Amino acid sequence: MAKTQDKVIISCAVTGSVHTPTMSEFLPVTPDQIVEQSLEAAEAGAAILHLHARDPRDGRPTADPEAFDRFVPRIKAATDAVINITTGGSTRMTVEERLAYPLRAKPEMCSLNMGSMNFSIHPAARKVSHWKHEWEKPYVEGMEDLIFRNTFRDIKHILKVLGDDCGTRFEFECYDVGHLYNLAHFVDEGLIKGPLFIQSIYGILGGLGPDPENLVMMRTTADRLFGRDNYRFSILGAGRHQMPLLTMGAVMGGNVRVGLEDSLYLGKGQLARSCAEQVRKIRRILEELSLEVATPDEARAMLGLKGKHAVAF
């Protein structure tokens, strides 16, 4: 008898560190904007809120714990959604900077990129003739000559100080098939226990392309490495590839991630006015496919999270 598909976890990445204010007037950058968009996304059906911080003066990405403190406790107080704090930050941040707030906050969940990699949107700068802030153009163009660093030792350190010591579990971000093998290495070493939450990512320059065949390859590779019952699969499609790949992934038994970190658009040529618009759209698609959306507490149970009461904010 065929196994009944689990409910689908919707994650929402609210602001990120890749897009800049010039690219969309709807990108949340101030604490009030991040709070508003987070709560609207949770109300629309997002069980997990993936959060970065911005300097409210000009929208510049920041790892300053004080910046996070201006909105994270407010979100926790107003919603039951799982709060997921980035450990990725941006390519310009050190590991120590990226961990500063997670180690203070001890959240239920953090993202964890499973390898060092080229990570860039520098071609996007060619499409912009006028920038709102002086930092934006060199920031975007400069990605061409930067890497995102997460060595094996970096990952091992994060697993220890944040996972073992703080009880935080991870959204394992896998931008390429090699990242799945990196994850398998840490599982084999006994440094990671299930259930695994694997966020497979497509369409970032430096990682796997958005071809549907790549999604199938990542799913079957994860099955082979971990066994389907030992992990939760999720799909992130960058830019215009967001909704098609998420739909395909959901049909394959996966969970989904939306948000203005991943795509600024709702449809062709149509900027999303909020993260909640994207949540509502993917929820409609899921429900048309006769799939049920997980609540925050259902997501906690599925992912083995420690609970909202056990965080430090």
Largest sheet: 8 strands, parallel, barrel
Query: How many alpha or pi helices?
Result: 11
The counted number of beta strands is 14
Strand content: 15-25%
**CATH level-4 homologous superfamily:** Aldolase class I
CATH class: Alpha Beta
The computed structural class is: alpha/beta
GO molecular function: 3-keto-5-aminohexanoate cleavage activity; metal ion binding
Keywords: Metal-binding, Transferase, Zinc
Cofactor: Zn(2+)
Protein name: 3-keto-5-aminohexanoate cleavage protein
What does this entry look like structurally?
This is 3-keto-5-aminohexanoate cleavage protein. One of its GO terms (molecular function) is metal ion binding. Its cofactor is Zn(2+). It is a single chain. With 313 residues, the protein is an alpha/beta fold. It has one domain (10-310): Aldolase class I (TIM Barrel, Alpha-Beta Barrel), CATH 3.20.20.70. It is built from 11 helices and 14 strands. It has helices at residues 31-44, 65-69, 72-78, 95-105, 136-142, 152-164, 177-188, 212-226, 242-251, 275-288, 296-303, and strands at 10-13, 48-51, 53-54, 61-62, 82-85, 109-113, 117-118, 147-148, 169-174, 196-202, 231-237, 255-258, 265-267, 270-271. The chain has an 8-stranded parallel β-barrel with strand order 1-2-5-6-9-10-11-12, surrounded by 8 helices. α7 links the parallel β9 and β10 (196-202). The termini are far apart. The mean pLDDT is 97.
